[in-house]
Amino acid sequence: MNKLILNADVEKGKINKNIYGHFAEHLGRCIYKGIWVGEDSEIPNTGGIRTDVLEALKKLDIPVLRWPGGCFASEYHWKDGVGPREERPEIINTLWGGVVENNHFGTHEFFDLCDRLGAEPYICGNVGSGTVQEMQQWVEYMTFDGQSPMADWRRENGRDEPWKLKYFGVGNENWGWGGFMRPEYYADLYRRYQTFVRDYGDNEIYRIACGANVDDYNWTDVLMREASDFMDGLSFHYYVHPGGWDNKKAATGFAEDEWFETMQKTLRMDELLTKHSTIMDKYDPDKEVGLIVDEWGGWYKVKEGTNPGFLYQQNTLRDALLAGVTLNIFNDHSDRVQMANIAQTVNVLQSMVLTDKEKMILTPTYHVFEMYKVHQDATLLSLDLQSEEYKYKDEEIPAVSASASKDDEGTINITICNMNPNQEVKINSRLAGVEGNLADITGRVLTAPELDTHNTFDNPELVEPTEFTNANLTEDGFEVVLPEKSVVLLSLS
Ligand code: AHR
């Protein structure tokens, strides 16, 4: 029997809207062709940015966007990406596909994108192959108001006012392609680099240190011990790979074994966050340092026939469940998790939209982000869920994941995922602590006939949210029947 008890008067703090953040790297067709086509392109664009992609992303209320990488950040030299575009140097993107990077999308273009999206920029600096001076000058270029070589250069390049920049990452995956460093060494480098990430005028930077990969708890421990006094956030990366890193499986055409494994690995996020947070608590009991999950999502084998370095993959109903369950987990950990950035926005890994020349489609993951935006900056409510198990062969996981929040108007939004692909789930819910009477329950559902149903350029609307009518108010709460393999949003007012 499934039971959900929601205590509407037990508020558990605000869900930082940045948990619904995104990440766009110079990788494959994410920036070039996906976001940026240039002003002279035949593809309709707004100042060089694809208009279709821009309009689609605007509907997600993206709070924060991380750029330029990822691994690319550890080879990025920002000076290559400012000034007249035709004079910018062409380099090779050695990490991702070995293709030419013409640097046409640089600092100015990124801030313009964020501005048009209404998103806060989150810049990841280069600790891997960049100097302290280079990082210091980038921050000066972006944020210094007075006269200085960098601020003057920015003006020469067409931007008079400094930009507001809050989030700055000091390095990316420095335990891996960001330099293969040991945590003790990186902790010292972090302390040094961050010193020169200066706050100019009233621009206050939230400094994010490179954090652990998956279950590298020692990295978290060392960074917190050696450098927590110098950071506002510590990052953390976790990707779901059915089959494992060395034996990635396809994004489509999979059977239930891979569905189950994906759900199991998705749920692991809860355990990882709990353990990293517990270590952080040891050094920071007041939870002043945020845990910043600045890369997460499903990572499969690339689509056949595409450049393996472009990480292009389809996005199915399975990804909708992966996203829905993960976002529920983030909400639950929002006392520590202050930001998360799904990888990546367009055409790379678990994308929001996919493009093919002038065509664009929305993915199931896009729809989950659109449904879940009700949680952004809302108040997390206490929710106790007793879920039946979803059994596969001799293993089992809970079938249901849920999260609830209350918005400023008092509407209670509950997002519920049924991971069981074979069985609908009936939930009786008891609501306590509601002021006045609830008069209305409405819903939306995202589901599809097959495990791997996905939108295509020929059939772009196969997976879309529809109205959900299988929920009713009862005397002490509500009753809902979730279809198998579905993501549901219920709104109670
Ligand atoms: O998102 C793709 C890559 O995954 C990023 O560049 C890197 O940081 C991570 O390993």
Features of the shown structure:
9 helices, ten-stranded mixed beta sheet, TIM Barrel, Immunoglobulin-like, ASD1_cat, 493 residues, 24% helix, binds alpha-L-arabinofuranose, alpha/beta, hydrolase, eight-stranded parallel barrel
How would you describe this protein?
It is a single chain. This protein is an alpha/beta fold and 493 residues long. The protein contains nine helices and 26 strands. The protein has two domains: 3-8 and 381-492, Golgi alpha-mannosidase II (Immunoglobulin-like, Sandwich), CATH 2.60.40.1180; 14-377, Alpha-Beta Barrel (TIM Barrel), CATH 3.20.20. It has helices at residues 51-58, 107-117, 132-143, 149-156, 183-195, 217-227, 256-283, 317-332, 364-372; strands at 2-14, 21-23, 45-46, 49-50, 64-67, 91-93, 99-101, 120-125, 167-170, 206-213, 233-240, 290-298, 337-343, 353-356, 359-362, 379-386, 389-392, 395-398, 400-406, 412-418, 425-432, 441-446, 466-467, 471-473, 477-482, 486-492. Strand 19 and strand 20 form a beta hairpin. The two termini are 26 Å apart. The relative contact order is 0.15. The structure holds alpha-L-arabinofuranose (AHR). Homohexamer; trimer of dimers. GO terms for molecular function: alpha-L-arabinofuranosidase activity. Pfam families: Alpha-L-AF_C (PF06964), ASD1_dom (PF22848).
